[in-house]
Amino acid sequence: MVALEVKAGTRLRSAVCDTEVIVVRAPASDLDLRCGGQPMIPHGSEPPVDAGLDPAHGEGTLLGKRYADEELGLELLCTKAGKGSLSVGEVPLGLKEAKPLPSSD
What we know:
It contains no helices and ten strands. It is an all-beta fold. It is globular. The model has no long low-confidence stretch (mean pLDDT 90).
């Protein structure tokens, strides 16, 4: 497990695909934040040469979508789409649902 210190505004990228995210909301504790089954790295860092995409974590990320875990208090905004899916450890992060707009009847 690679614990990563995350705070609002932190930019991260995947070590195995094109995915890039920005942290919108973060818990006070460090996280094992992953993409494609591999630990995420700070934006601008070089990925390890031996890192590979885990097929079990290859559902992909969507540009402009928010991924969240409400229990942890974590929310990420995808700024560049990729083949890997986001997770905290082995637990996948789900898409954050849009809030319904009020009725204008």
